[in-house]
Inverse folding.
């Protein structure tokens, strides 16, 4: 992919700043309607991405008829549109305003894991409003770090990370990050990892909705190396545009002598957890991404 010019980056920056200003001038309920409408507009106009979304859903849910698949797909785009608006709005919210939108279930699991003193890996996914998850956890006082891929436009990356970190979340660039991750775990802090996206290299090919998907093995490897507790967590959107952060009990990985088998089995356990969430609320996952794009080499 050709590198963007400074002029292109700056023009994108100006457009985003103007859009953010418009959103923050609007009543919040109007802004959410705008986000939902933008999701609908993208769904009907971006044919290639719509086809990927519908194809992914049909593959994962072969028992659902085409009309139901299309209805879920549209809800996916509306959710993404609202997620964008909420993220922009959060940039100006106080802690009290944010936490007034969020409830928690299962904090005892997270607190028990932290009490072990070895840090916590938060296993999560692009689900509900994933961007608010780390922000909300920081707002209630947890030491949160997140792995994130830097945006191609450094000016936009600065805006996004400024909102992510407003209550203390620390952003770790995901490339060559293992030393930084281990460092924060040794301080008994948390590191959030979204492991539901396609990987192009160093992947474990394990099933996701019954088809091999290139998946990062970083969470099982961290557990093996450091003894860190693995806590599955997601942010679920409610019907009234509030959120529930649902924290599951600590995962128990299989202790296997063969490293490849250890990685394969336990990475699959992570995928199974994310599958469980998606099956309950399929419209809240990021189906627009081609999760199965990278294929295993033949005869490997």
């Amino acid at each position: 992919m050709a590198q963007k010019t400074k002029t292109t980056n700056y023009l994108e920056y100006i457009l985003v700043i103007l859009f953010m200003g418009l959103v923050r001038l609007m009543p919040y309920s109007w802004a959410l309607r705008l986000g939902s409408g933008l999701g609908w507009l993208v769904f009907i106009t971006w044919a290639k991405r719509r086809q990927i979304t519908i194809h992914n859903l049909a593959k994962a849910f072969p028992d659902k008829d085409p009309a139901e698949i299309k209805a879920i797909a549209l809800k996916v785009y509306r959710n993404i549109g609202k997620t964008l608006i909420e993220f922009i709005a959060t940039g100006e919210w106080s802690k009290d305003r944010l936490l007034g939108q969020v409830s928690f279930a299962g904090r005892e699991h997270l607190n028990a894991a932290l009490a072990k003193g070895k840090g916590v890996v938060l296993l999560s996914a692009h689900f509900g409003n994933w961007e608010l998850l780390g922000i909300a956890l920081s707002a209630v006082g947890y030491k949160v770090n997140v792995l994130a891929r830097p945006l191609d436009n450094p000016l936009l990356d600065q805006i996004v990370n400024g909102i992510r970190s407003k209550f203390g979340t620390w952003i770790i660039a995901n490339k060559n990050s293992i030393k930084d991750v281990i460092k924060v775990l040794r301080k008994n802090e948390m590191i959030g990892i979204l492991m539901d996206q396609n990987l192009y290299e160093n992947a474990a090919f394990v099933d996701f909705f019954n088809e091999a998907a290139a998946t990062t093995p970083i969470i099982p490897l961290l557990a093996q190396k450091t003894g860190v507790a693995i806590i599955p967590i997601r942010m679920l959107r409610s019907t009234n545009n509030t959120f529930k952060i649902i924290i599951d009990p600590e995962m128990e990985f299989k202790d296997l002598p063969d490293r490849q088998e250890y990685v394969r089995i336990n990475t699959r356990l992570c995928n199974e957890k994310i599958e469980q969430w998606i099956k309950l609320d399929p419209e809240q996952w990021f189906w627009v991404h081609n999760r199965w794009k990278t294929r295993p080499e033949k005869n490997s």
